[in-house]
Design brief:
Structural class of chain A: alpha/beta
Largest interface: A-B, 42 and 42 residues
CATH architecture of the largest domain in chain A: 2-Layer Sandwich
Largest sheet of chain A: 9 strands, mixed
Shape of chain A: globular
Number of domains of chain A: 2
Number of helices of chain A: 12
Radius of gyration of chain A: 20 Å
Oligomer: homotetramer
CATH superfamily of the largest domain in chain A: Dihydrodipicolinate Reductase, domain 2
Order of helices and strands of chain A: EHEHHEHEHEHEHHHEEEEEEEHHHE
CATH topology of the largest domain in chain A: Dihydrodipicolinate Reductase, domain 2
């Protein structure tokens, strides 16, 4: 099977998410990383390229040059993975879309809504694939939840309880030069959202992905608990969904003891389900009037969607990388289908999902600034 | 040791909470139940009295007569336990307070704030004991949390996440004649609050009890998901505390799979703690920069407050009844101290806590009616 | 309802299990403790009696006198609870049985098999009730397991995995004068078994109680890991059951981190179940080819036996005392039935169960001494 | 960095473990799979090779030819991964060792002890790397446990409780043609051990890996519960270790509800630790006289060994593939060191570990046949 030729922008030494994208791309052997502008620092770019077995001639100092050059190569890249800080996503994505190269982009896809909407137009006009790595939607049991809800197992959804809590920003480590903290707490690089952008968008997307509902309105109360921090590090948000369901979303990066505590709980008039990212291989399913069932990945009660996203028998834990790799694998399928001109349905988060994430951030900030008022997400 | 002579109003056959009060009173042998107006139905009252070894002459058909008669008996009751539906609490409590009899009252203490405030005045003027059975504050590990926070283990509190979710009202069982459901969903008997009154007040109290903070403002979004129900069965509430901490409170009685899911999580700038009522014998303690500790009841790291509230060695689970019994035991200490004219500090929820609970309900309802606006709890 | 008049031997100040028996007896208001020989030290006996509201005239200095006196009283005790160290159980039980008084006896019932067999004859000849407080069989979910197995839910039982691990004897605290440790590690007071007698007998009984099977043979390897200790503090035992099922039993009092880790797991050809004493309100049920179900006490899937043993709605944890109290409540039923000459089936562990426990200890010790050989339990 | 050229024998379509080896090899980009004899069926071999991007010329019909050919190629393979059924391991390994090619071999390494010992001699004489994929030793928290014990955190080890339970062979699925079941229950392909060989060897190795102790003796009771099965599907084993520690090992493939239930628990005179494969990212650590700590992968209390084996921040679950990949990554380090003539310590299970696994199987079977007697593992 021909591998997809992948380029990468960002993700040089010292980065966090770049190596995860590379492991995800490698896991199923569907991609070959052949080009990169891995750092804005030419030395780091070159060293990182060598480390990743990218030929010298295809390690670039700038993404603009990379887009231009790769477009013209006979064996140029099919797709680019964008893993820079948020403020660069838009210009990088635009550059490659204009060269007819598919995009796999980290979230949030831009720092401004207008940029996101421009990317949406570009993507739609070009017909290219624009995959957003809301990677948690790649977990098999998340897809199991989606399938069960679509099949009516929960009945009418009434309540969606979301939380995504971490503790790594409990102190002002951005002042110590910690690279990840520095850019993620700086509006110049991160955009208008702190925790809500960095992790809140994941939870926001996951709720819509799993339930098939759309968030219709929200009301937010943001805090920056750590002295000197300008972006939010804690957010309490109320949600309304387009079927009348209600929900809450707690986002925090200052909750001591929480490592990567993403949790989704959905309750309908027939049953409830609960999923926690730190125990990703199981889904609690509680039909009204019956016992709670522990549905396991690849276990007896696992359905088609989760089984397609599984690689191992039940009891053999899959984790974050495997979930992330599902986004890559599904995107590979999309690209192959695109190349032969075939339409296909896909679970891969797309440009519309990306734009919704930016709108979410904007509305959360606006609601908070207005003193916690309900704002429609559609205005 | 002389036992406290206890009377009971409500709690006849078919009731739920009355028998719990009786087991709680018996557990430590500090009380003797000697009188009762156990039902407004004379036959049920008599049969229930016999079942509970109450002499015929001290089983009453009305609480007014009971208060009058017991006052005049040489060996009349020292205290009365009020376990009727909410709408009767106020008049019963008033009747006994006026006869100089201590009161142990279920929550919410009244259905109207004005009644609660009147009880507060009566209690303060009389100097009598008015214990409110916010029973969850009797759990040893809840007190462990309180002691740790008071000792500064968590530093400055930033975040308080509360939830109390059940599923027993997921369907309109009030229409089937189920007694508990019928009165709890009827404003005439329950007051203005549905789930927020029945269980939300517990969570509200617990947060203040554990942290020593006061709720300064709240913002609420209420729903009645079950068709035909007038009181709330689901509530999403944002909270502000008087030190600047923020929080959320989710209250639901329609969350399929939740049996009695009361959970309190508190995060400060030094550590976080988490406690869940369904696993009451442990407390998760997560100091920033260290591993999470599982502190167990009567275990190596248990402190004085929790040890005083424990009856068994670690690993021998204590439960709901034992926690409830701690309220009774501590109230017995208060009554003994009162009788000898001694002041004592106590963890027993008192009339002020009871009034705060009613104010909580009123403000939640008002905020929701106003479209989810912040309301001060002090106005 | 007339209360059963209960006497107690042992259980004075400083004892552990006596107060648990008293709380268990009080919880359901079926007993009244009216007499006692609570300590062999007359001063402690008197002080303990006063503390427990026992009249002076019915606090005795010796159990022999107590048996003699109570027999002759018009309102003498119906039953005696024996909560002394093990070596006294036999003579106390004999004294009361001979006076036609029912016995509730802690386990192990004797320190010698011959004594146990003598008690069995006495009991059978007298027709009296002899209840053994294998209290873990009083837990509702243990009875749920029993009911499910009896109903064939597990099919043919193949495997029984038992463990009962604690850590409180990890160091030689018996040398510090700790009262519980001192007698439990001394063969003079405890008998031939250390951990196997103190806690192993519980697990042994529980397996037979739950499955309805009988242990046919065992093979043991005992250790005394703490220097200077003569009785076992760790035991690894293989088991065979009378239907061909196999099992293992690990007993330890030196397993750091284990508080009261009693666990029973049973696997048949149709399903498996798992129950852990430290989370007593749930039972894991895993039908072959389906998801694991979390069956909860008083929850949707709870059956008759567990519901009869429950006092509270699901989600309101019951614990050790409530389980213990079920033994007392069921024994009260037995005594009432006896008094009116009616036979009744009962789940209360009886004298035969008590004798089996002593035989278990003897065979374990003998197998270990012989170098870990299989010994039939029936020889 | 030059990638190691890897060949593979076995692992064609329909196999289970082959694809896991390939994902593990790919994850860190240290290997390139360039040759294979993926099936004994030429058509399947060719199709599987194509699927894995192996050039036609290097897809072989027999491993003997493959060994011969690859030896002579300028860019021939550095190492071979052997993922056939057990009975072929020995001859394949021998063939490649003789051609001076490193071996990565699945467990158990042979079906006969004599074969294993011959491989040991061949390996030692050649100086080649022989890695055995006892993959569970690649989990970061397993290595965390090893490091803590080596550092004395547990004091003297007293007790080792092992279990490895599954349920997939609860019925005679080998009769339905299920490929994995068919060969694993057939002594011709699997060797003398059923469950004890397939999974018991993992637990056996893990105990020695973690504690640094050696098993000195064992005593076994084996069963084949499923009708018609000749190899064991359940094993109850007692263990002695060379420092006097004692243990139990339960191995089962007929325990309904167990998916891949490998659990290791070790108790010393200072602390205990517990690790469960299905929740691999955490380690419970219980120091005597203190609370249980939940040590998490890459968390605050994680040490050097586990951090070196981690790829992701804490809270981002790693799983089975990542643990497996650690064996591959460490083996890559060994091969690189070998190539430059440098000695290095390694955590990779080696030929001695492989031989011990075979000896374990033989002794277990012999002890059982002799009626469950203690057998020294060193005889």
């Amino acid at each position: 099977m021909r591998k997809i030729k992948l380029g990468m922008v960002g993700g040089g030494k010292g980065a966090f998410i770049g190596e995860i994208h590379r492991m995800a791309a490698r896991l199923d052997d569907r991609y070959q990383i052949v080009a990169g502008a891995l750092s804005s620092d030419p030395k780091i770019a070159a060293a990182s390229a060598e480390e990743n077995n990218i030929e010298k001639g295809r390690s670039y100092d700038s993404f603009e040059i990379m887009a231009e050059m790769e477009k013209n190569l006979a064996n140029g890249i099919d797709a680019v993975a964008i893993v820079t800080p948020n403020h660069l996503h838009a210009s990088v994505a635009k550059a490659f879309l204009k060269k007819n190269i598919h995009v796999i982009c980290d979230k949030p896809i831009t720092t401004e809504l207008s940029d996101a909407e421009e990317l949406e137009i570009l993507t739609n006009d070009s017909g290219l694939i624009f995959a957003v790595t809301y990677n948690y939607s790649g977990y098999p049991m998340v897809r199991q939840a989606k399938e069960m809800i679509a099949a009516g197992k929960l009945g009418n959804i009434r309540i969606i309880q979301l939380e995504y809590a971490q503790d790594w920003l409990s102190e002002s480590i951005e002042k110590t030069g910690q690279k990840q903290a520095t850019w993620r707490t700086n509006p110049k690089y991160a955009g208008k959202g702190g925790a809500i952008g960095d992790i809140g968008t994941h939870a926001f997307h996951l709720a819509e992905f799993i339930t098939g509902l759309k968030t219709s309105a929200l009301l937010a109360d943001l805090d920056s608990f750590v002295a000197g921090r300008t972006l939010d590090d804690n957010a309490n948000i109320l949600m309304q969904y387009n079927n009348g369901a209600k929900g809450m979303l707690w986002v925090s990066q200052v909750a001591s003891g929480k490592e990567n505590g993403l949790q989704v709980r959905v309750y309908g008039d027939k049953a409830g389900i609960e999923w926690s990212q730190e125990e990703p291989n199981q889904l609690r399913y509680s039909p009204l009037g019956d016992s709670t069932n522990i549905i396991t990945r690849a276990g007896s009660a696992a359905g088609q969607l989760s089984n397609q996203a599984s690689r191992l028998p039940s009891g053999h834990p899959e984790g974050f990388i495997e979930g992330f790799a599902n986004i890559y694998r599904d995107t590979a399928d999309l690209i192959v289908a695109h190349n032969i001109g075939r339409q296909m349905n896909s679970l891969v988060p797309n440009i519309q999902d990306g734009v919704r994430g930016i709108r979410f951030i904007e509305k959360v900030v606006a609601s908070n600034q207005a003193g916690s008022i309900w704002l429609s997400l559609e205005d």
